[in-house]
Amino acid sequence: MLSVTQNEPVEFAPTLLAKFADIVGRYPEGRHKSALLPILHEVQAHFGWLSVPAMDQVASYLKLEPIEVYEVATFYTMYFLQPQGKYMLEVCRTGPCCLVGAERIMEHLEDRLGVKEGEVTADGLFSWRGVECLAACGFGPVLQIGPEYTFYENLTEEKVDELLTNLKNNAGSQPLSANS
Ligand code: FES
User: Which atom of ligand 1 is closest in space to residue 95's alpha carbon?
Assistant: First the structure.
């Protein structure tokens, strides 16, 4: 993943542009705007988040107004508009998970990581945030980690500690498989 700062100019690599062309090719002539969401996902996977210069470049590539890209990127919560940690821990904060301790899990994450919701740890590894129902309501508290969206269910403080340790130890390799 390539890191960029807020206003840093962005150039898309030929490999990324090839992916864009492949995505645009899936849609009928004149419907290139339909490629916007998947292209934003590719940009986010490449840079870790969507900076304004990156969104402007996408607008230019798709011959859209920048505002058309901003509207989409700010509407969907799966797009990050500021830098995130390598691991974004998304904890379900909807009612059923709260009844079984989701708020306690979020407090524990804040305590263990030393950062508030949406912030990044000093080592760049972790961010966390509360999200709405993850559709695993019978297995709460639950969190997911993108971009693969691996699920961790029936969480306790001890399981969270174990997960953080494993993620730190594996930070240079592949993401872990889920445990529950
Ligand atoms: S309420 Fe938490 S997964 Fe649905």
Answer: 1
